[in-house]
Amino acid sequence: MLFHPLLIFSGHTVTINTSIGISLYPEDATNSGKLITLADNAMYLSKSKGMGHFHFCQEL
């Protein structure tokens, strides 16, 4: 899981969570628009699974 709290000034804590979608050139697509769309779809799949995940794209 990608999760570590950060201690900043005055004892405040900041938590950053990430969900990552991954598409690969040229395996998944050969143009930037398609690569971004596939990575975006994979990111939303990651978000649906909860915080701190990553997924590779899956062609539908």
Describe the secondary structure blueprint for this structure.
Blueprint (H helix, E strand, L loop, with lengths): L4 E3 L5 E3 L3 E4 L9 H17 L4 E4 L4
Parallel strand pairs: 3-4
Antiparallel strand pairs: 1-2
What features would you describe in this structure?
The structure is a single chain. The chain is of the alpha+beta class. Helix content is 28%, strand content 23%. It has one helix and four strands. It has one helix spanning 32-48; strands spanning 5-7, 13-15, 19-22, 53-56. The strands form two sheets. It has a two-stranded antiparallel sheet. It has a two-stranded parallel ribbon with strand order 3-4. The chain is elongated. The mean pLDDT is 86.
Mean pLDDT: 86
Structural class: alpha+beta
In terms of DSSP E residues, the strand content is 15-25%
Helix segment tally: 1
Q: What's the shape?
A: elongated
Count of extended strands:
4
One letter per element, helices H and strands E, the order comes to: EEEHE
